[in-house]
Model the fold of this input.
Amino acid sequence: QKEVEQDPGPLSVPEGAIVSLNCTYSNSAFQYFMWYRQYSRKGPELLMYTYSSGNKEDGRFTAQVDKSSKYISLFIRDSQPSDSATYLCAMQPAAGNKLTFGGGTRVLVKP
Amino acid sequence: DAMVIQNPRYQVTQFGKPVTLSCSQTLNHNVMYWYQQKSSQAPKLLFHYYDKDFNNEADTPDNFQSRRPNTSFCFLDIRSPGLGDAAMYLCATVDGLGDTQYFGPGTRLTVL
Done:
């Protein structure tokens, strides 16, 4: 079993819909949680960063962490075709430790 | 302005012909990482540097070597590339708090 599980998709939604992404993990030591967006043939770009449990909002993006369930989510409101990309979750037990990535979910937002 | 720069963006080599990929950063971060990412997979950590202190992942093949001559530059050498080494190679740096990795655009390696 992988330490971090993420549905590979693809997840196809119409423009304007809410995109809902999630990851589950098994290592209870993880404290720092990130979401990266990766466009085709480009490097990952950090979208959201959360420490421990709770919600964080940044524009159209909301990240949620539920440590009791070992479950993290990313929501994208009012999705745009430019949001079409692969979204990777990543986590680490402490700052400076190596990241453990999920496999990524490919998202396609159709105009 | 680009903060983590990787060159070349695309590299084609022949089976068994050594290749070097480069990464430079303008952030003055002391931690640098090299990842290998194959199609539709998560990035896989190959090694990382804390300053000049080199850390190799246990499952990184001996075929892969790295050099960091100074804070700004880091190189990935693949001594004898095989077909299975075709992938995107990503360089990343970490800021002073150690909690945010900044990735470069990657070098896509093709092995013929």
Q: What stands out?
A: Chain A touches chain B at residues 8, 32, 34, 36, 41-46, 49, 51, 88, 92, 95-99, 101-104, 106 (CB under 8 Å). The first strand of chain A starts at residue 4 and ends at 6. The radius of gyration of chain A is 13 Å.
